[in-house]
């Protein structure tokens, strides 16, 4: 689970960093209608990169959320009786596969993306040409990509994450009943730990459902009816909900996983050259125990 959480954290970090640069330049430094200096060739290229990156990272995050719910469900179903290291290896493979397949799936979007000047005589303002999901004049290839984006990037992962979220709740309830019949402090402590971890995972799954399901419904409705009024009206709100989800995830990871907290703290200590008090206490205890 921690490896998958790390993959989601990397994806969310890339999304937020790209959005930070986008918001500063396109929303804060320049007004909404100010084009001079806002859409230069360099910044238009960045905007094209930002669109491709965020589409890819959103898809990576939602599919890693699906993988996380599947892995947790399998772990609870088997009562954690697996050889050590097996889950770690599988989780690493899952993360790599999700990253690679998401990049491959959006290759048509990368290929269609281009930057060109507004007019042949103007070199100050540039525009991006890409697959417009709201356009009615799409080619068959562009229409196929739009449906691949909706089905593979939104529809299927949303359904899977709901299904395995329900299965997690049912399995956790059964596991709790089964464990309550057993006696022993170790059994109760293990149940408490599993319950806490699973509940936090369910919170993360719920955040994904809240942020992705409305967008999926609006997109399917718009493409099926060629009426994107609801998508246009709710687009900024949906994007804001997705960004809030990305921002909250890191807090949930730290609350859920002690290993994640320890690794984050160790990384911060390494970056900012801070002495780690935990490491100091560990070394001090070792020296004390070793002394005659």
TrEMBL record:
Gene3D superfamilies given in the database record: Rhodopsin 7-helix transmembrane proteins
Record keyword Aminoacyl-tRNA synthetase present: no
InterPro entries noted in UniProt: 7TM_GPCR_serpentine_rcpt_Srw (IPR019427), GPCR_Dmsr-1 (IPR053219), GPCR_Rhodpsn (IPR000276), GPCR_Rhodpsn_7TM (IPR017452)
GO cellular component: plasma membrane
Transmembrane parts of this sequence: 47-71, 92-112, 144-172, 193-211, 231-255
UniProt keyword Isomerase present: no
Domain G-protein coupled receptors family 1 profile: 1-253
Subcellular location: Membrane
Pfam short name (any one): 7TM_GPCR_Srw
Keywords for the protein's UniProt record, in alphabetical order: Membrane, Transmembrane, Transmembrane helix
PANTHER family documented for this protein: AT19640P, MYOSUPPRESSIN RECEPTOR 1, ISOFORM B-RELATED
Protein name: G-protein coupled receptors family 1 profile domain-containing protein
Originating organism: Magallana gigas
């Amino acid at each position: 689970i921690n490896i998958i959480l790390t993959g989601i954290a990397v994806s969310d970090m890339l999304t937020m960093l790209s959005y930070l640069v986008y918001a500063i330049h396109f929303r804060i430094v320049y007004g909404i209608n100010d084009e001079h200096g806002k859409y230069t060739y360099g910044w238009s290229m960045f905007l094209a990169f930002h669109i491709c990156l965020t589409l890819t990272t959103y898809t990576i995050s939602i599919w890693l959320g699906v993988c996380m719910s599947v892995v947790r469900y399998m772990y609870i179903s088997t009562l954690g009786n697996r050889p050590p290291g097996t889950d770690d290896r599988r989780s690493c493979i899952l993360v790599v596969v999700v990253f690679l397949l998401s990049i491959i799936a959006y290759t048509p979007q990368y290929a269609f993306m281009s930057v060109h000047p507004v007019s042949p005589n103007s070199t100050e303002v540039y525009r991006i040409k890409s697959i417009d999901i709201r356009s009615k004049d799409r080619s068959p290839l562009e229409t196929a990509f739009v449906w691949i984006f909706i089905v593979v990037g939104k529809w299927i992962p949303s359904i899977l994450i709901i299904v395995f979220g329900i299965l997690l709740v049912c399995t956790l309830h059964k596991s709790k009943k089964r464990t309550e019949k057993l006696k022993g402090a170790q059994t109760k402590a293990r149940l408490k730990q599993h319950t806490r971890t699973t509940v936090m995972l369910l919170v993360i799954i719920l955040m994904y459902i809240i942020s992705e399901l409305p967008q999926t419904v609006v997109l399917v409705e718009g493409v099926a009816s060629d009426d994107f009024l609801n998508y246009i009206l709710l687009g900024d709100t949906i994007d804001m909900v997705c960004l809030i989800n990305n921002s909250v995830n890191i807090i949930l990871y730290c609350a859920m996983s002690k290993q994640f907290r320890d690794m984050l703290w160790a990384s911060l200590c390494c970056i900012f050259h801070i002495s780690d008090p935990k490491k100091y206490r560990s070394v001090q205890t070792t020296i004390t125990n070793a002394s005659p």
